[in-house]
């Protein structure tokens, strides 16, 4: 996750603090939830040659993407978090998601996982505009974030110190901003409705993807050619 306007040296966004908070709250479940999203992305857009993950943080989601065969370039405003990534990626870029250091039309796919709720309205719109700018014609943008209507999400943002600035957004709002930036939304799905411990109910997870039962949502679209 990328932090808006802050000091990367603060303990709140240190690699050790970030990892410890996630272990305390999620235990081993976090990897299951991240892997579900990675599998969803791979199936959604198998033709994208590589992805830029904006707000990649310590690379937990990128690691799952790479495990699924998705070549991934990590970008985050916290150099400390990026340096804690130990996987093999297409590279690490320390930069603000609202000012992407890439030429126009040079990126085939942009993805972010739980970044938008850390951004104020101005930064969120700036990031979507930047994603549209750097995307190649017909390039994909895929956004994952928390379901603001789910009671577990309300508990979660109280438990995680790095979510103290959370401003939960909806798929509808996200799609509106995408359209304004020149990205045509193509769909919405809901993920992580089934607790990670119920491994035998993955079929139910797939069944519930069309209704707002999950703790997270996905919105995706293409840059207009």
Descriptive overview:
The chain contains 8 helices and 7 strands, in the order ααβαβαββαβααβαβ. The protein has a 7-stranded mixed beta sheet with strand order 3-2-1-4-5-7-6, sandwiched between helices. The chain has helices spanning 15-26, 29-44, 60-67, 79-83, 121-134, 151-159, 171-181, 202-207; strands at 51-54, 72-76, 92-94, 107-113, 135-146, 183-191, 216-223. Helix 2 (29-44) crosses helix 3 and helix 5 crosses helix 7 (171-181). Mean pLDDT is 89; it is low at 1-11. It is globular and about 45 Å long. The protein has a single domain (11-223), classed as Rossmann fold. Helix content is 36%, strand content 21%. Strand 4, helix 5 (121-134) and strand 5 (135-146) form a beta-alpha-beta unit. By secondary structure, the chain is α/β, with parallel strands linked by helices.
Average pLDDT reading: 89
Instruction: Going across the biggest sheet, name each strand in turn.
Output: 3-2-1-4-5-7-6
CATH-defined fold name: Rossmann fold
Succession of helices and strands: HHEHEHEEHEHHEHE
User: Could you describe the largest sheet, including whether it forms a barrel?
Assistant: 7 strands, mixed
> Count of DSSP E strands?
7
Shape: globular
The poorly predicted ranges are 1-11
Portion of residues in beta strands equals 15-25%
Helix content: 25-40%
| Rg calculated over all Cα atoms | 16 Å
Assembly context of the chains: single chain
Number of domains: 1
- Name of the CATH first level: Alpha Beta
